[in-house]
Specification:
two-stranded antiparallel sheet; 5 strands
Length: 119
């Protein structure tokens, strides 16, 4: 089962020590990888159930890549940039596995200058 709003809110409540309040609750979290600020909101009904959990600057990520594994230790909140980098790194790892190579076979690109695009 994919993450529903209740699962998302329970994770946020436990991980970031949120105190539930009825109505629209503003969220201010930190990326669990780089620490960048993530904002969002949760709409809590009068019965205390979350109707909608939205992250404006980030998203929920399954560490093992399996969207059906919703255990608490498999979920993390990441900013969009970290999520993108982890997604690309996963694609690189799958490609290396497909061509029967490993991470050590990749060239060292740390000294390559960034691309300059004039505005």
């Amino acid at each position: 089962m994919l993450l529903n709003n209740k699962m998302k809110y329970e994770y946020l409540k436990e991980r970031f020590n949120l105190v539930p309040t009825i109505g629209i609750q503003k969220l201010e979290l930190a990326c669990e990888f780089c620490g960048k600020r993530i904002t969002g909101e949760a709409k809590i009904s009068k019965t205390g159930n979350p109707g909608l959990v939205t992250l404006f600057d980030g998203m929920f990520h399954h560490k093992d890549g399996n969207a059906h594994n919703n255990s608490r230790d498999n979920i993390e909140v990441l900013c969009y940039q970290c999520r993108k980098h982890l997604q690309y790194w996963g694609m690189v790892q799958r490609y290396l596995k497909k061509i029967e190579r490993n991470q050590e076979d990749l060239p060292d690109c740390s000294g390559v200058p960034g691309v300059y695009i004039p505005r």
